[in-house]
Amino acid sequence: MKNVRVPSSPQDVHPNKPGDANVHLETQNLHVWFGKRLILEKVNLAFPENSVTALIGPSGCGKSTFIRVLNRMHEFIPGAALAGRVLYDGQDMYDAAVDPVNIRTKVGMVFQKPNPFPTMSIKDNVLSGLKLAQMKYENPEEIVRTCLERASLWNEVKDRLDASASSLSGGQQQRLCIARSLAVSPKVLLMDEPCSALDPGST
Q1: In this structure, what DSSP letter does residue 52 have?
Q2: Quick one: which of 102, 78, 73 has its CA closest to 89?
Q3: Helix (H, G, I), strand (E, B), or coil: what is residue 20?
Q4: Considering the entire predicted model, what is its pTM?
Q5: Residue 41: which domain range?
Q6: Contact 202, 152 (CB under 8 A)
Q7: Which residues contact 95 (CB under 8 A, 6 or more apart)?
Q8: Domain limit, last residue, from 74, 98, 122
Q9: N- or C-end of the chain: fewer Cβ atoms within 10 A?
Q10: CATH, residue 176
Q11: 7-23, pLDDT tens digit by residue?
Q12: Cβ-based neighbour number of residue 54 at 10 Å
């Protein structure tokens, strides 16, 4: 695992060389704002495939903001803006021709706080990303079981898959969100302190 230390104030960051082979995701001269406030400045990062990278830094330094930029969640925030490029397999994911839903099937995201769909069943939550992206899939029962097993939740919910996601505890909801992200088989999985709601055994 590679650790990337994020400074407490915006500055140039170059832990990997952009443009290297086998890079799925990279940023080039990235600047991020909320209104007039500059949050990130001149960020150049490359994330090679089959690797784990940890962003380390003090609270409020922009780690969560940076992660949200990487799968186009930043643009949902009023007053948010960015300059520079975010490339997925060489393509600028912020290009007007790029479908953000398609991007999010390739670059998955698990947030710090659980965010399952409360009106959906446990089973439908796992499959929701596949349905939203209109991805073809077979054997939904197998997908649900495999993803819940990988998230260490299957044994706790296997007898109530049709129950509402809101019936789960906070830690169970977080593991459900992890299973939901895994269901679309993303090439990149972004995780923002995903274990903060989990007990040591589940972690």
Answers
A1: -
A2: 102
A3: coil
A4: 0.81
A5: 2-98
A6: yes
A7: none
A8: 98
A9: N
A10: 3.40.50.300
A11: 554 444 444 554 455 76
A12: 11
